[in-house]
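Support reply, case 0932

Customer input (verbatim):
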Amino acid sequence: MGKIALEEHFNLPEFSDEVPQYVSPEIMKDINRRLLDLGAERLAEMDAAGIDFSLLSLTSPGIQGKIDPKRAVADAARTNDTLAEVVATNPTRFGGFAALPLQDPAAAAAELERCVTQLGFHGALVNGYTNIKDADTGWYYDHERFWTFWERAEALRVPVYLHPRDPLAGNQGIYEGHPELFGAVWTFTVETATHALRLMTSGLFDRFPKLTVILGHLGETLPFNMWRIAHRAAAMGDLIKFDKPLTHYLLNNFYVTTSGNFHTQTLNATMAEMGADRVLYSSDYPYESMREASDWFDNAALNDNDRAKIGHLNARRLFPNIPEGIGHGESAPELGRRSR
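Our regenerated output:
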């Protein structure tokens, strides 16, 4: 089955030194090499995994880690122009998520519009909070300073993928002495789930009810914890700044992907809470293996209808500008030969 994958990362050579080193040097060296490859090797991996189409995004921390707002604006535009050239070379295999300079929310809104309306991108991916002033200070996107950006995303009808990064230095005390808990092991999950809850509890989705946010890794534990979160939050009285139950926002404003969480029981629990229509396929390449992700998904104990929804139908509905013929089971190698 021709799958559509949403959380597939790349990097530019000049940003290579900025990628955190979460694994052994040998493994990280290979990951950095694969991040830079946007040609034959990546296409061969997609072919072997039965992935017709990948939405590419700048790896973490990307533009969110830039301290100088002017540099962030310039680097975002350059990154997006480079990605647009890659997509133009292989339009039947690659699409793009915009990298955005949220150091300047108005500039981020304008860059998102440019990427969607002029470059044909499918939305944006932001790597957690955005640094300001220094590496230890950051902005989360529930603040009203970002309303201009969220308003533009809603108007353009494109999703924003909220991707993880490690917590700010001042929030890392609980992990002291346990560096093995950083990154995808645990801190990514806690950080991103908390960020998503900040968006929900801020009233953002009451102001912009058609806004769509995507979370990776089967929702960063939120589908499993949302009943208790919503149950206790409803008792907060005057502290409540949102209009609807938190479960409403999860089920109406969020999608989740399978990136890096290749476990059938976890997928089933996610579908039980959110429904198969809100789950999308992803691998999290090159931090995870496309083949491992696809071997699991293609053989997981799912009915054919749910497998088709998650594998490609939901993505086609969410991203109507994906080229025709993608994700309908056509041979991925054949698509690759036509586009190279």
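We compared this against your earlier run and they match. Two observations from our side: The chain has one domain: 3-339. Residues 92 and 324 are 9 Å apart (CA to CA). Please reopen the case if you see a mismatch on your end.
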